[in-house]
Records
---
Amino acid sequence: MKKTIVFSLFGSVLFLLSFIEGEEIFDIAKLRRLYSSGDTSRWPEPHLDDAVKSGFQDIGVLPKVAYPDYNPYSKEKEILGKLLFFDPRMSVSKQISCSNCHDAQLGFGDGKSLAHGHGRRVGKRNAMTLYNVGHYTSFMWDGRASTLEDQMLLPVQDSVEMHTDLLTMLKHITDIEGYKQHFKAAFGTEEITIERIQYAIATFERSINSYPSRFDKFISGNDKLLSDAEVLGLHLFRTKARCINCHNTPLFSDNKFHNDGQTLYGTSQEDFGHYHISRRQEDIGAFRTPSLRDIALSGPWMHHGNFPTLRDVVELYNLGNPAPIQRRVKVDESKRPIHSPLLKKLNLTTEEVDAVLAFLQALSSSTQRRIAQPVLPL
Ligand code: HEC
Ligand code: HEC
């Protein structure tokens, strides 16, 4: 009996030693208890910079999506929106649907660094995942659309996406007899308008939500669902790794814009992001913080899709997000991007990087979602 106790004590000491960080020893059993207690007031304090403290909301279980008053939920609208989302006749060529680039089996993105659209032309940015999209307060990497209803008009008209003018889109859909009954069911009359198309698609998009992750179930009280490495990763995410400063709220996004060192200043891929909308110096190269729910499903990562693995992303943060070495080109010094002051060198050990990565996996489903392609009206 004594021997067993000695051995198991020895075992746990060894185990704790393996998670030593500088002077700090992480007591995983205690962290597990606190984080899975179901009581967030018992969680350890997050490491927040002063700039983030006001209005801060911690990570947690994602509530149900809110539908706006002007476009409330109905099953019929969702069904119609799904048909339109999958319908290539929304584009000028009648070949490209929203689902071309937002494919459920590819994490609601397209699996490519940069999206391909009309005539296989390559766009400037990575196709965003649509998981939990109804929880954002602005849309696109740079935030240039303020509602999902308005967002929908951009890809339809974009010359490297669906490349159609709105009246042609409307005509394509109006010409399809079989849509009339769906518009009637969703809106009360058979009339097909651009606005109704916007409202239906947005309603469908608000239904694209992640399933509860192992993280959600763990913090709700199921204390077995995360491994020790994942518990450590969760704790580091909120403390030493500083992710919580931007990837906060139950969405894992503060819905704000930050320069993450990805402007690619002075290169052919230079992208000023949110600056194009706000025209404020500090927004040069700032992008909206993406959610990290189901993040493992939607690579490659970042607005340019240049990161083929999540490890690359976490290693970048660990180094304090240095800008890539600049090519010798003439740049406008007055527009040199300034990195977010929230980014700092993290000094994570290899084991800690692994733990953060393990946590990102615990936020993601283990398999890609499949959505049956609906039978389109004729
Ligand atoms: C050719 C590929 C392509 C097609 C087709 C396409 N998208 Fe996208 N989608 C993208 C890209 C790329 C982005 C990011 C664009 C940016 O930030 O400039 C994006 C972003 C979005 C976003 C913003 C998500 C967020 O988190 O802010 C939504 C919503 C969206 N698309 C919906 C749609 C809908 C609805 C359609 C069909 C009407 C559609 N897309 C068609 C490539 C595409
Ligand atoms: C200063 C705010 C900030 C901090 C701190 C931060 N992020 Fe981010 N994160 C962002 C922004 C903004 C982007 C999008 C940048 C882009 O695409 O250019 C992003 C992108 C990402 C992506 C890619 C998402 C995608 O859809 O392609 C991952 C993964 C990620 N962050 C994980 C982390 C982790 C893990 C940490 C902590 C080690 C962290 N972030 C810390 C703001 C931040």
---
Amino acid sequence: MLWTSCKNDNDDPDPTYTLTQEDLNKSSKEVELNATGRKFGDASIPHGGTGLTTEDTYRDMYSTIGFKSSDASAVGTIFTKRTYMKNADGSKGDLIVTFAMAKRESGYFPDGGDWEFVMMPNDGSNDYETNPNGMLPDASQTEMRGQLGMCAGCHSQASNDHLFSQSEVPAFEATQGDLNAATYEEDLMITGKEYGDLSIPHGGNSGDPDSTYRDVYSNTREKEDLRVGSVITKRTYVKNADGSKGPLLVTFAMIKREAGYWDDGGDWEYVQMPNDGSNDYEANPNGMLPDEGAPNRGQLTDCAGCHSQAPGGGYSFVRGTE
Ligand code: HEC
Ligand code: HEC
């Protein structure tokens, strides 16, 4: 319809758009891969169904336009998301479900930014070689496709047109629960100069690195990269004269914050929690997280100055040494 392009009348309705299987398959430009955890703040969900936490899945996002394109809100733009289980060792598991958002004409669904929402569980009937984003349900299946209020309600919190991947990532503020979730063993019974000349007793005072045992844990599984929301903790114990493990002296944490939080600290937040008798270590085995702004939490230059020398440039000694 060539004549429409000659008109320049802003009152014209936007052209209508109908989502097809062929178009859905074209959403193949990488937007973000392996999103996991609470990267998008409190809005983050496992996006894989009930009974899962945000840490249990990986989410891969694609679109027809790529990352932060100015066409994100153009009619006909499609965003897709593929959700996979995360295996116990942190590797990527089976595909659970795929999702789509397709931008429709203005007025289609004002409460949902005029996006059409689609949900396509992996029920075994789709060939993902042919349809990598799932098989589009018929438009009559209004529970799986269309003006899905449940999707729109949450997506309306994204600052850029209902699209989380195209919005600013919110500040990551760790909770006590995030600290407690650091239960994966990284390296236990560290003592002496196991990590070279920078090794310290890490017990809150100077001394011989051979005078303590240090146990390091994280919430980031073995095969998973460190990322926003990663927490690494360390528990330091006295080493008794007979070589056995003595009382707990102090716990530490490093919390990976959003990009830009603190360049000189590798965007880590540093925490020091001396065992002063006020914590219940049954409930909080990595210590009790001080309030944000407390002197023993935040951009602690003494910690970062040494950790900046960790091999690999990631500020973690344990993860920097393969
Ligand atoms: C409780 C909040 C919430 C609900 C409900 C929700 N989403 Fe999302 N969605 C997110 C977040 C957060 C992201 C960002 C990526 C991530 O963390 O997985 C996202 C990303 C997406 C993306 C990639 C595009 C983008 O950048 O936002 C698609 C497509 C998507 N969701 C579709 C859906 C569909 C379809 C539904 C309903 C069946 C739905 N979502 C329900 C929170 C939600
Ligand atoms: C002089 C160097 C130095 C200083 C200062 C230092 N650390 Fe460390 N840190 C290390 C080394 C070396 C390791 C490796 C494990 C070990 O030997 O105990 C480590 C390990 C850690 C770990 C485990 C994560 C990892 O892989 O690096 C945490 C958490 C940690 N330190 C927190 C802190 C905090 C918080 C401070 C400041 C209060 C701090 N550190 C100060 C040298 C240092």
